[in-house]
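pasting for ref. prot 1 ->
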Amino acid sequence: MIEFDNNKKAIFNPQNLNFETPVKQAILVFDDDVWEDYILPNKNLETMEVKNNRGRVFDTYRIINKNNKLTLLVSPSTGGSGSVMEAELLIASGIEKMVAFGTCGSMNTSIAKNTLIVPIIAKREEGTSYHYLPPSDTVEQSIESIAAIENTFNKYKKDYEKGNIWTIDAVYRETSSKLEKLQNMGYIGVDMELASLLAMAKFREIKFAEFLIADDNIAGTPEKPDKEKNLEELLDLSFSILDKM
């Protein structure tokens, strides 16, 4: 199995992207609806171009000035490994705190689609987190991050569920027996990034918070009708969480 090494200096280390405009905070948008239908068409958002050490230009970042604070908006790769690599580049480039949000599979038929979820812990069934923390079954979201998310949801008067998340990078190995076992342990959602990002944030000692939005229900047919999904509001929630961190 993986042997954890706590040496922060690796053979290959993330490079500083040398942002032309210094920025200290970022929102990682894993929700395709928010990114494609709200952020990309928004003409008020400036594109932040960056170059890697080979001169390749990336123009996928967006930057916004809200409440006199600059925030970088990022659409990361799917999965723990890819999203952590991109988050590492942001940290090396001066980002000190991040909020992430995206959809997850629901593991409870009583949870309606588009329900907001506050993750407490993530079960580590991916590989990336084991290179950032010693072996364990789970990794916790910080108490401070959970408080920032809950305070924001309460401020906006948003209903939400609070529970454990199963992070797995083998999409086609979500079996019914594992689903039942984890349901009995209090798990309410499944995703591909949370455990990896939480572990990376603890290792790099940065402020990080993530909330999720229930999407397809892997436990069966939902018992309740879909909730409304407000794309602009999801981004507003993220800004508010950043302010509280």
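and prot 2 ->
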Amino acid sequence: MTLNHTQPESLDPLLAFLAARRLIDFGAYSPAMLRRRLQLRLRMLSLPDLSAYQAYLGEHPEEIDRLLEVLSITVSHFFRNGLPFALLRERIIPALIAAAGSEGVRIWCAGCGQGEEAYSLAILVYDYCQQEGISPPVMILATDIDREAVRRAQRGWYRAEALDEVGKRFLDRYFTVDGDGYQLAAAVRALVTFAHHDLTCGTAPQAGIFSDYQLICCRNVLIYFKRERGSLVQQQLAAQLRPGGWLVLGEAETIAPALGDSLGEVAPGSHIFRKEGSHD
């Protein structure tokens, strides 16, 4: 029930099968990561190899949804790894809103999983606007390759472990106990639009309408791509970012060499980068 490590079975037939069935291209992802996750599924189903698994998929089409959940990176929690969120709260969001004017605030959370990061941003934006007594137009677009994760995110309901890093003030103000979990306030949820989008497709999400984002977050997603594709996706994200806008990466991710002259880190170790130039 293990993959052959001396001559690994080709992933191509299985990836082609998924591309044909769901129009999702996992060819850009790290083969090592895909193999690790597939091996877990093989063990669970007591299947000997990928060929047997692909045959199983053909006989049990409902397994495709489970496989997509396994291959997609959807595990997170609110305010994960606090430094970037502290900088966003104290420096970047106030500056972003002050410069927004009548056109409002446009944020893209790429690879949003089940919505924890997008809603964390929404809480910070909403809370700041409440404190300042202002109400600029706000659009936070949150996208992910996993349609089921997007569906769950739209509910805004989470188990307690997802809220471990939520401070008491935010917890009391923006969450209510609901069964064995917590429901996020409707006013915060209303700031976020969720949509399906594949980062490797090379185009901006159609649901965003705009391509001139002031803030783009793509954290702990690109590390799972092949190096060349990860660099290309970063460049595509940067192209969707307005001059003077911010790009937020994960703690294990670095800026692509091709962007080193146009995106500078705002604080050492923050993994938040600002695009050169200004936008009137």
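The chain has a mean pLDDT of 87.
Residues 141 and 193 are 5 Å apart (CA to CA).
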